[in-house]
Amino acid sequence: MRWGAQMVNRIRQYPAARALIAQSVALVLVGMLVYLTAQLSSWRPPIMAAGLAQGLLAATLGRYLGLSRWWFGLNLLFVPALLLGRGSELPAWVFLLGFVLVLLLNWNSVSERVPLYLSGAPSRQALIGLLQQQPADFRFIDLGCGPGSALLALARQFPQAQFVGVETAPLSFALAWLRALRQPNCLVRLENLWRTDLSTYDVVYCFLSPAPMARLWDKAQAQMRPGSLLVSNSFEVPEQPAEQVIEVGDWRGSRLLIWQMQG
Ligand SMILES: C[S@@+](CC[C@H](N)C(=O)[O-])C[C@H]1O[C@@H](n2cnc3c(N)ncnc32)[C@H](O)[C@@H]1O
Predict the structure, then answer these.
(1) 53 CA → ligand 1 middle, Å
(2) CA angle, corner 135, sides to 130 and 141, nearest 5?
(3) DSSP code at position 262
(4) How many CA atoms lie within 13 A of 151 on its CB side?
């Protein structure tokens, strides 16, 4: 009984597990439907139509299981993409390479429940507006900087300030590190954000997921200097309403949530 409850809790914690359940259930149901149709009539549904039906069902089940909106597209297209790939002339290693690249970019999806998606240009613009209010030589860190797009854009915009990015997804880190070589006020480290000391930064920026926010708040409270800013792109801290909210105005409905650390 306890084992069962633990299992359910684990599954709740990991969106990838919920996606797997949604995909499997949809596969079985659509597979059964196709089988029954074949038994009872001479009609054979086109394979891609069956794939799309499976995707639609998986995506709907995924939403029902509490997966966030962006999983909808993934669940919808997963099996149709496999079917498309199956019919193509591409050699098998191309798919393996694709899988490895996705894995190296999304290293933290499973353990940290933080996949890779990027702060878009409107978010960067909103950040620039916020950083303009800092003294010229401020210190900024991006916790989980991905391939460094936002970090480098900001570093170019504020040449007198210091920018640091930490990242543990191998390919994202390598890209960000290489790009930062040409930007003298920007440093990228292969480092787990939970090991990063936040005490020397004026602005700590993160765009993670709901999962780590409570723990990150505790870390920020313990380490950040009074007066420094914690800025979270879109993800709230449970029970800690942001002191300032900047609507970014993009298609995702992004918001910069800002807290100033107290003494
Ligand atoms: C949603 S992306 C945001 C990328 C970038 N900050 C931006 O705004 O464009 C989150 C990134 O955090 C990284 N990440 C997640 N957990 C991490 C951890 N514990 N330590 C370092 N990086 C982490 C992920 O690999 C991913 O690249």
Answers:
(1) 33
(2) 60
(3) P
(4) 37
Buried b (16+ CB within 10 A) or exposed e, 73-96: ebbbbbbbeebeeeeeeeeeeeee
Radius of gyration for the chain, computed over Cα atoms and rounded to the nearest angstrom: 22
pLDDT in tens, 185-215: 999 999 999 999 999 999 999 999 898 999 9
Q: Is the CB of 116 under 6 A from ligand 1?
A: yes
Cα atoms in the Cβ-side hemisphere of radius 13 Å centred on 36? 6
Query: 144 CB under 6 A from ligand 1?
Result: yes
Model pTM above 0.85: no
The DSSP symbol for 197 reads -
What DSSP designation does 240 have? B
Cα(165) to ligand 1 centroid in Å equals 9
Helix axes 47-64, 69-87, angle to 10 degrees: 160
